[in-house]
Design a protein that fits this description.
elongated; 8 helices; single chain; 4-stranded antiparallel sheet; alpha+beta
């Protein structure tokens, strides 16, 4: 009988505009517990604990534990997809980006809160005009305003070399500006390290719930292939 815990399951499950992570782990026969959690961005949405008897008279204890893990894992996914955790998600994370599949409209804001949003913020009253001190003599028609003395300039711009460069640039004979680089740069395809990535048209045509590379977790146990197919079928049905 194996004393090490069974390898767990990890899947990314789409639900109402977000991608949640469902994880199931075995604590080993010494503690004899199975834990399943649903996460979003590090926040636990729901948890489930299953206990088993390591001394149970079963033909293959390892397969018995694996079966319990898979059932707990799929039950958590079904509960998430059916909206059983929606209120808790709104409380701890925020409103769902998408409406439920049954066509129900998202909850409307309370009338008082909506009225508060529509109300324009109060502004300070416009100050009364006041007398200001006159700054210099008034301007009169036909007389130009104050100008900057052209003799007062930076020494760097008054040198003959600088003036020659300015004149050459004005005549289109100055030095060319540095190149901004090649106009066409070949970009690496989107995707993982060493991967060819996913084309934009494929990403638009394929639903996220049908993409094995998104739903299936990074770390997979040797007996997870069949479970992956079952979960993908589950997502297509709901």
């Amino acid at each position: 009988m194996s004393r090490s815990p069974q390898l767990g399951y990890n899947h990314n499950i789409p639900h109402r505009g977000r991608l949640y992570h469902v994880q199931t782990e075995d604590s080993g026969v010494d503690k004899a517990h199975i834990f399943t959690h649903a996460f979003y961005d590090g926040t636990i949405i729901a948890s489930n604990k299953v206990s088993y008897d390591p001394e149970a008279g079963v033909e293959d204890l390892d397969q018995h534990i694996i079966g319990l893990m898979q059932e707990s894992h799929k039950a958590m996914i079904r509960s998430l997809r059916r909206g059983e955790f929606d209120e808790k998600i709104v409380k701890y994370i925020g409103e769902h980006p998408e409406a439920p599949k049954d066509g129900g409209a998202p909850k409307q804001a309370a009338p008082a809160a909506k009225e508060q949003q529509d109300r324009r913020p109060e502004r300070r009253p416009v100050p009364e005009p006041r007398e200001v001190e006159r700054q210099g003599p008034p301007m009169t028609p036909g007389h130009p305003g104050p100008t900057v003395d052209p003799t007062l300039t930076h020494p760097a711009f008054s040198s003959r070399e600088a003036q020659a460069q300015v004149a050459a640039s004005a005549g289109g004979q100055g030095p060319k500006r540095p190149s901004r680089g090649p106009s066409r740069v070949r970009r690496r395809a989107i995707g993982g390290i060493g991967g060819r990535g996913v084309k934009a048209d494929q990403a638009q045509k394929s639903k996220i719930g049908e993409r094995r590379d998104v739903v299936v977790g990074k770390f997979a146990s040797e007996h997870q292939a069949q479970l992956d197919d079952e979960i993908l079928a589950l997502l297509r049905e709901e």
